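Data availability (excerpt). The following record was deposited with the supplementary files.
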Amino acid sequence: MSSIDKLKRLTGENIKAPAEPSEKKVQLDELRRRIDDVMARRSRQAQAELKRKASTVKDNLHEYVSGEEIENELGKFFLASDIVHSSSRHGYRNIRETFGFDMTAAAMLANNPSISHFCCSDALFLDTETTGLAGGTGTMAFLIGLGWFEEDHFHVRQLLARDFGEEKAALAHLAELAAKKKFLITFNGKAFDVNLLTTRFIMNRLKSDLNGLPHLDLLHPSRRILGHRLANSRLCTLEAEVLGVEREGDIPGWEIPQRYFDWLKKRDGRLLAAIFEHNRLDVISMAALTAHLTEILDGYELNGQTDDTDYLAAARLLLNRHNQQGAARILNRFGEGECGNLSALSKKDISLLYKRCGRSQDAAKLWEEILALSPADYFAASELAKWLEHRVHDCPRARRIVEEALQSENNFSAEEKESLLHRLKRLNAKAEGSQ
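Predicted structure:
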């Protein structure tokens, strides 16, 4: 009796002996093994051919970009370094004028109070150039631009993965540099750069605290403070219209991915030189833009580099961030006698900001100025009438203002006219009741 039969007798189970593999299955397994061997051999040959071709293409990057090859435990990559001296000019500013920006204002821009405890040398400016503009797991940041303040100068480092195999070493170096800083400054980095880099760290099985650093993304406050008078809020537009930076021969962003793919085939440094310069200027411009925005929030006079409406937009941002003191500081720029040259629209904006700050009497002066020039202005008539009725308790004067507005030849909307008539009816009732 076989062992299997003995076991079946002891347990009562219907145990079957494992079937012997059929001759057909053995033949199929052998065929699969031979096919796998052929495919693996062809793959090795293809990789060897690619390496052979790559070795025959001269890499002339050093002729067009000043830098050096860096090697760490994870491989090699190319590092370009630049020091922008304090006396160097960038648009309207010397680089020294970007140092020491107000950290409380920077925290307001970021809506992150923790940033106020740092200093400007704790900031790491970051910008990437990628193989695709849409992002996604297949997109790689082949060039990582970094900047920081050190010893009265602005330092720029650019990490290039010369091919896909160098990405891991470049990311490791980025993590090492980022670990020395306390917060990030980017332009659209929250939606793109940092998310992309975080994905690439994960895919390369590397650790990084980049995504955990406090983050000032300049795109959002730029839109809120400057975007109202610009065609768009792209960095190149802000450079030209606000910072006074003029780029000559700059490469458009949409062309950059294809340039890198061409580089992988041709290894011609001329394909990357313009990308390095584009990225370098982006990093420097972020430092200049940070200084510009913080100075507006502090209410500084910027010698014609900005517009009064920028300050009003900054005051609104501060009020939305519950910083009434900062908003009041900006509004003090528009003291008595200094609003005469402002448009009616700007005066309306200032009056609403005064109202939000509790300075209703200052707001009322502006409403009176508007009505003196345009007695039929619905906004000014309505606001001044409300103030006179509810705060000053001067119903007769409030009634006169509403009546004058209604009697004027003005194309009020149906809603506006109904509102004024309703207010007049209530004021008449109050007048009758007081008699």
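Summary of structural features: The two ends are 124 Å apart (CA to CA).
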